[in-house]
Design goal:
Elements lengths: L3 E10 L4 E3 L1 H11 L3 E6 L6 H14 L4 E5 L7 H14 L4 E4 L11 H13 L3 E4 L12 H6 L5 E4 L7 H10 L3 E4 L5 H11 L4 E2 L8 H9 L5 H15 L16
Parallel strand pairs: 1-3, 3-4, 4-5, 5-6, 6-7, 7-8, 8-9
Antiparallel strand pairs: 1-2
Helix pairs in contact: 3-4
């Protein structure tokens, strides 16, 4: 079965004092039998464009395994924001955008939030919105944008992070362009989403490589049917982001 990590990061984060190396990312995929990952910079690297280049290089060295998500601060000059998004999508082949509501203090309903939604529409790529924080990461806060940008596919990263997962679930019930990525959600919530929304609306993700094994364990221990695992653990990401060249990798062999 093809497994895709639909949301993870690489590089440094000066907000949360994290630094994910390429080797850690590659090792996490290999040791867990994961075919591919959608990779974004953290919200506050020293140079976002440099991390975007790093992700593009990673994708060129591992074709069909790593795909880029643009993550740049929308509070900068709008022309600069638009140019970096255009560079990443048109030149580097990135397949989506990220709105980091916490790391960039990003109000989805503000003027700069509109800039991000407009960019996703202009370039025809899905928009991943970080959810689970207060005040800007509330899934319910995306109601107006989900309606006004019904032609943009929205992925709610973390699906409200457990505390606000009911809001994420309700939003997805009301709008067919909303999908839910479940890193950080309790296993019981993941099962409810898969069974309540259908397996075609839910995506597995890790957020960081250290979480990948535990996120996989959630899906594998919920008693889901094979087709439910097949869709939510990989095929949905392939279809939603139009991923090319993803192939199944062998399951890792446990050491004796």
């Amino acid at each position: 079965m093809i497994i895709v990590d639909a949301f993870t990061h690489v590089g440094e984060c000066r907000i949360h004092d994290q630094n994910v190396t390429e080797s850690a990312l590659v090792e996490a995929l290999n040791s867990n039998g994961v075919s591919a990952a959608l990779v974004s910079p953290f919200p506050a690297p020293a140079n976002p464009a440099k991390v975007h280049d790093q992700i593009a290089d990673l994708g060129s060295r591992y074709p069909g395994r790593f795909f880029g998500l643009v993550n740049v601060n929308p509070h900068i000059n709008r022309d600069l924001y638009h140019r970096e998004v255009e560079r990443c999508v048109r030149q580097l082949g990135f397949i989506g955008l990220v709105m980091d509501t916490l790391g960039h203090a990003m109000n989805p309903n503000g003027d700069d939030g509109r800039t991000v939604f407009e960019a996703a529409r202009d370039f025809g790529v899905p928009l991943v919105v970080e959810t689970g924080s207060v005040p800007f990461g509330l899934p319910s806060g995306l109601l107006r944008r989900a309606r006004d940008y019904s032609d943009v596919k929205l992925v709610l990263a973390h699906s409200g992070m457990g505390m606000f997962t009911a809001e994420a679930e309700q939003l997805a019930h009301e709008f067919s362009n909303v999908y839910l990525e479940t890193s950080g959600c309790p296993g019981t919530a993941v099962k409810r989403l898969v069974e309540g929304l259908g397996p075609g609306r839910v995506l597995l993700g890790s957020d960081v490589p250290e979480n990948l094994a535990s996120e996989l364990a959630k899906y594998r221990n919920l008693g889901l049917y094979h087709y439910q695992q097949y869709q939510s653990m990989g095929q949905n990401a392939i279809d939603l982001f139009a991923l090319k060249g993803v192939t199944e990798v062998p399951e890792p062999v446990a050491a004796e």
